[in-house]
From TrEMBL, chains A, B:
Gene3D superfamilies according to UniProt: Homeodomain-like, Tetracycline Repressor, domain 2
Organism this protein belongs to: Salmonella enterica (Salmonella choleraesuis)
HTH tetR-type domain mapped to chain residues: 6-66
Entries under PROSITE patterns matching the protein: HTH_TETR_2 (PS50977)
Alphabetic keyword roster: DNA-binding, Transcription, Transcription regulation
DNA-binding stretch(es), residue numbering of this chain: 29-48
Statement: the UniProt record of this protein carries the keyword Transcription regulation: yes
Annotated GO MF terms: DNA binding
Signal peptide: none
Protein name listed in UniProt: TetR/AcrR family transcriptional regulator
Phylogenetic placement of the source organism: Bacteria, Pseudomonadati, Pseudomonadota, Gammaproteobacteria, Enterobacterales
Pfam family, one: TetR_N
Transmembrane segment boundaries: none
Amino acid sequence: MGRIRNFDRDAVLESAVDVFWERGYDGAGMQEICRVTGLNPGSVYAAFGDKHGLFIEALKSYMASMSRETIARLNSNPSGRAGIADYYAALIEAMLDGKRRWGCLVTNSIVEFAMNDPQISEAFQLHLARLETALSGAIERAKQAGELSRDVDAAEAAVFLVCTTQGLNVLAKTRPSRRTLEAITRHAFTAVGFKA
Amino acid sequence: MGRIRNFDRDAVLESAVDVFWERGYDGAGMQEICRVTGLNPGSVYAAFGDKHGLFIEALKSYMASMSRETIARLNSNPSGRAGIADYYAALIEAMLDGKRRWGCLVTNSIVEFAMNDPQISEAFQLHLARLETALSGAIERAKQAGELSRDVDAAEAAVFLVCTTQGLNVLAKTRPSRRTLEAITRHAFTAVGFKA
DNA sequence: TCCATTCTTGAATATGAATTCAAGAAAATT
DNA sequence: AATTTTCTTGAATTCATATTCAAGAATGGA
């Protein structure tokens, strides 16, 4: 059958995600991608076609792992309110200390590509819709539990929270203080209808 | 004295702003910049040094005109509440029809450059601080007028509104509906403490 | 009118990054 | 073990685009 591939495709994608995340699509040179993944150009091109193809796969990998993590956190607690609080608490920590200092790969890419690339554009819409649905679900649970008034429109509130998250993703790049981030999420909570 | 320059520096900057705004820094080719401004490469380089220099000046021109417009709108009405409402109403229109479909040049650039360029980074912080101050002023006026409770923290509320605007700037690129944009600004109003 | 200076022009060049490719190495099948 | 197939390597190439430059044109002063 011939020589077997001796690198792990998923591990390579995870490394590539970091480069695109930190530097952006244009800012990420094949040279650095090769350094970080430990691959040579030839192997990258054989496995992924070209830089654009690598990026699409890296983006999908990022989206999948983020969706998974977000949904898990929102549902980690029977209380919808606590789920949303946990989600934002984790976001803030990552923005202060973790990779979220680089913003969010989806947000960064929406801005960098506008909606010029139909393939990427579709993936964005899907990802944002997924986040929105997960938030909406948590809001509905909060309503059921009496943590929130029955006449809150869950869909609208979810869109608003998605917008807040996008805003945080931008501000994260300006190295904001914990105080600033917490003030923002506190206001978002109020906006949805949760009591302080 | 020699030949006099026969183009208007400010007009050139305004055209350049549009190219950077729509395409981003990397996406804006000198070729297109020359086409749009009507200049030749040589003239651009003589006047602005290089692409980076042109960008910095274009960004400053954008920031100045946006600050001016925003502050004017926020103060266009004696009521702080009405000023903020006008500001968001105008933003929504521009996101549906106008150049804000391309997002905001500041937001786009914050994301594209992260905080790698100190010169640009400083300009960002200043611009965001200006917006924050203007919003905070309107909120204070609303408090004075009894449109808002005295114990609203104007500084925190202003930071929150800046975040919302950044989020809108991102979502604008996904071609959102009027309903979506209005739902978001309605929630932001609530979050600050205005009655529906 | 002529000169000195500065601007304009657009083709030529330089630069940097993506991509290819030919040779070598490893695995599996016979 | 030989053979075939596929992967790996990294230097060479291609390609795109920022930048330069030499020649021409317009202005103000002498």
